[in-house]
Amino acid sequence: MMNRCIKxxxxxxxxxxxxxxxxxxxxxxxxxxxxxxxxxNVPAGLDPGGVAVAIFGPGIDxxxxxxxxxxARDGEGNPIGFDFIDDxxxxxxxxxxAGQTKMRPGTTLASIIAREAPKARLAIFKLNPEDGEKxxxxxxMAGQSPVRIVLIPWTGDVAETWVLFEKAAKHFEKLLxxxxxxxxxxxxxxxxxxxxxxxxxxxxxxxxxxxxxxRTAGANFGSNSVDIAATGSGVMGLAAxxxxxxxxxxxxxxxxxxxxxxRLAETKPELNGAAMKKEILAIAKQSEKSKTIARxxxxxxxxxxxx
Length: 307
Known about the structure:
The chain is of the alpha/beta class. Helix content is 22%, strand content 19%. It is built from six helices and 13 strands. The strands form three sheets. The chain has an eight-stranded parallel β-sheet, sandwiched between helices. A three-stranded antiparallel β-sheet has the order 1-12-11. Strands 4-5 form a two-stranded antiparallel sheet. The longest helix has 18 residues, at 250-267.
């Protein structure tokens, strides 16, 4: 069953540009609401411990190599998370086609976090990114769980969609929300998108650069609305065929900052979301290239940075 398509943006592409920058975040759930007739069961396992990082979005392929063992689980071994599209505990991401390329964007992002925060565990929430009620419920559910970091890899243009999310984010101060700035090649100071423009103390907005600090083609920017830039091009991630490929995009950069935040929460568990944001921003370096891209500057190697 396929529900209606959406218009939410958030591009993710291969570095060789075989998937064009204009391709939505793998069509952001391939019309975002792909309801599967039957999801595979989650492989049996135990909770691995560590800081819990939630990924909101298209779900993940938890049968992919190395993923199941990193899932956050309850005392009975059930994964922490939920599928708000199928209304069950199996937030599985189907492989979708973007042109000639098959993609699993949620799984790609999960693999990046798993690699760059090797002691973290993953909580997966699958949802339609245009459903404001479900976005708010998901944020509240994350706040009532062991989750400390939340990755939001998409953007939207409708402020009303984020009203309930904003209330939940303000209430659950322990959480740090890491949001992609988007990839529409626009200044979001002038043309706002969300959740970036909510200006929450526990929300950090991330855009992507090349390794030399130049803004990645298509990545959004804003010297007030974007908090930080990070290298988000030429980053290895797990592809749909279970091989490693190079990816680019603001969601990739945001996943790297989420992993960095998880390492910070591991060493300083007493910090709430706003305090974690402050420590991350403090290590960014401003440059001529970054000053028009992001308010606090750039982090070249998030996987090596230690707040």
